Amino acid sequence: MLRIVMKFGGTSMAGIERIRHVANLVKREAERGNQVAVVVSAMAGETDRLVQLCREAASLYDPREYDVVVASGEQVTSGLLAITLQGMGLNARSYMGWQLPIRTTAAHASALIDGIDVDVLERVFGESGIAVIPGFQGVAADGSVATLGRGGSDTSAVALAAAMKADRCDIYTDVDGVYTTDPRIVPRARKLSAITYEEMLELASVGAKVLQTRSVGLAMRYNMPIQVLSSFEDRPGTMVVGDDRIEDYKMERQLITGIAYDKNEARITLTGVPDRPGSVAAIFAPLAEANVNVDMIVQSVPRAGERSDLTFTVPTASLAHSKALLEGVREEVGFQEILTDTDVVKVSAVGVGMRSNAGIAAQMFKALAGRGINIIAITTSEIKVSVLIPEEYTELAVRVLHTTYGLDAEAAE
Amino acid sequence: MLRIVMKFGGTSMAGIERIRHVANLVKREAERGNQVAVVVSAMAGETDRLVQLCREAASLYDPREYDVVVASGEQVTSGLLAITLQGMGLNARSYMGWQLPIRTTAAHASALIDGIDVDVLERVFGESGIAVIPGFQGVAADGSVATLGRGGSDTSAVALAAAMKADRCDIYTDVDGVYTTDPRIVPRARKLSAITYEEMLELASVGAKVLQTRSVGLAMRYNMPIQVLSSFEDRPGTMVVGDDRIEDYKMERQLITGIAYDKNEARITLTGVPDRPGSVAAIFAPLAEANVNVDMIVQSVPRAGERSDLTFTVPTASLAHSKALLEGVREEVGFQEILTDTDVVKVSAVGVGMRSNAGIAAQMFKALAGRGINIIAITTSEIKVSVLIPEEYTELAVRVLHTTYGLDAEAAE
Question: How far apart are CA B110 and CA B291, in angstroms?
Answer without folding.
Answer: 15
